[in-house]
């Protein structure tokens, strides 16, 4: 166990910096895409494939995290993820065409590993503060994406796109340096085993499937907005710069939601009211964009951002609350996030194909609203604890609101 307040502070700082690394390598590509395509003579489809490769890795390679945590423990798994991220970003930024996609795949793999590990780390190190620390790390995730999106163009203008994109590696290395004392303090057993038996148990649970559905659908509706919102606003008549500002505004609103919603929801035994409010706000934002995109667009973006920020925070909070120990959290996180990001990778493509087939944005936005409605339905089940379900811990009568009871083999403390 790390000793004293200094050790605890180092743990929290390392955790926060690791969380900041969950999105800059992904979000920083889009602002640089024109420069990358011009430098490497890429078509728009080939340029878009850089992000697609990374998002697909988030979905397909998430199961690497439970395998690594079984052998190394969760703390060392996070350190491995940070180091792979730094290598991937450097390869993506310094190589040619092969390096571009190979580095993107490495970076996507690293983010997948860290995505899956983070809920388990919250459960392992902060079991009595799950809501607060979930809010902290999801806020860092969203803020990291927003900051990366805003600084990449100025950096590229000053130093070129390769240096701008490669700068993300510095953040990853700093986080790895601060996390290393935690990872190597002693042989770790907190990660537990997440073998076939655990997955069979999870997949027999109704809770697992509704959590998977909720995670996947909120990811789909988020990435659809991320990919197409500026284009929708431009087609409605807003100038390109104002359309970009609208996307930035919705990202800022997400930060406000991710900072506050998990703290309150984490204290409640049921997250159904929070899930309902988040889905309704998301749907109101979609309706505003559908019916009146140029009338008070800033209002629709604030509402949409609060709804979507609350949704991702609740999805990750529910994963942490519904499993009884760090190893089970990691396994449930792998199942839910892998399926979620795979669905998210397909969403923007499907949205674009519907737009192409119909010649407008009405039908795609209606499909998005339908996805939000199904998200609400799955969230109503995912947000409701079901004692006796293999994926859900029994909550002792004397437990504090939102507290969870680890299984006998779990590691509830700081390890």
UniProtKB/TrEMBL annotation:
The chain crosses the membrane at residues 43-65, 77-94, 100-118, 130-153, 159-180, 208-231, 243-263, 275-292, 298-319, 331-355, 361-382. Residues 7-387 form the Major facilitator superfamily (MFS) profile domain. Residues 392-415 are annotated as: Disordered. It is found in: Cell membrane. InterPro entries: MFS, MFS_Cyanate_Porter, MFS_dom, MFS_trans_sf. SUPFAM superfamilies: MFS general substrate transporter. The keyword Protease does not apply. One of its GO terms (molecular function) is transmembrane transporter activity. The keyword Transmembrane helix applies. Keywords: Membrane, Transmembrane, Transmembrane helix. Residues 392-408 have a biased composition (Low complexity). Its main location: membrane. One of its GO terms (cellular component) is plasma membrane. It is a multi-pass membrane protein. This is MFS transporter. The lineage of its organism: Bacteria, Bacillati, Actinomycetota, Actinomycetes, Streptosporangiales.
């Amino acid at each position: 166990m790390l000793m004293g307040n200094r050790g605890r502070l180092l743990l929290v700082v390392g955790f926060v910096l690791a969380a900041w690394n969950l999105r800059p390598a992904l979000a920083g590509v889009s602002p640089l895409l024109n420069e990358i395509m011009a430098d490497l003579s890429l078509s728009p489809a080939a340029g878009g494939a850089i992000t697609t490769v990374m998002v697909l890795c988030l979905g397909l390679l998430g199961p690497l995290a439970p395998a690594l945590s079984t052998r190394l423990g969760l703390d060392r798994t996070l350190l491995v993820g940070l180091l792979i991220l730094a290598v991937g970003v450097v390869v993506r930024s310094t190589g040619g065409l092969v390096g571009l996609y190979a580095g993107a795949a490495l970076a996507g793999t690293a983010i997948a590993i860290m995505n899956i590990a983070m809920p388990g780390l919250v459960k392992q190190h902060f079991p009595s503060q799950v809501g607060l620390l979930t809010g902290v790390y999801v806020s860092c995730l969203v803020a990291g994406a927003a900051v990366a999106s805003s600084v990449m163009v100025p950096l590229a203008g000053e130093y070129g796109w390769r240096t701008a994109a490669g700068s993300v590696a510095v953040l990853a290395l700093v986080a790895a340096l601060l996390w290393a004392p935690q990872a190597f303090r002693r042989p770790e057993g907190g990660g537990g085993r997440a073998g076939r038996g655990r997955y069979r148990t999870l997949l027999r649970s109704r809770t697992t499937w509704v959590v998977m559905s909720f995670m996947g659908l909120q990811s789909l509706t988020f990435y659809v907005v991320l990919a197409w919102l500026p284009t929708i606003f431009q087609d409605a008549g807003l100038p390109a710069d104002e359309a970009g500002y609208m996307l930035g505004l919705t990202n800022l609103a997400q930060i406000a939601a991710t900072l506050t919603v998990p703290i309150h929801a984490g204290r409640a035994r049921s997250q159904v009211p929070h899930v309902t409010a988040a889905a309704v706000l998301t749907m109101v934002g979609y309706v505003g964009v559908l019916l009146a995109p140029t009338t008070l667009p800033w209002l629709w973006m604030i509402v949409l951002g609060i709804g979507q920020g609350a949704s991702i925070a609740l999805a990750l909070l529910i994963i942490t609350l519904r499993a009884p120990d760090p190893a089970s959290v990691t396994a449930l996180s792998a199942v839910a996030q892998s399926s979620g990001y795979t669905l998210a990778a397909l969403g923007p493509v499907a949205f674009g194909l519907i737009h192409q087939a119909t010649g407008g944005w009405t039908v795609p936005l209606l499909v998005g609203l339908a996805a939000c409605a199904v998200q609400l339905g799955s969230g109503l089940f995912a947000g409701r604890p079901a004692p006796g379900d293999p994926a859900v811990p029994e909550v002792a009568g004397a437990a504090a609101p939102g507290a969870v009871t680890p299984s006998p083999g779990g590691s509830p403390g700081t390890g």
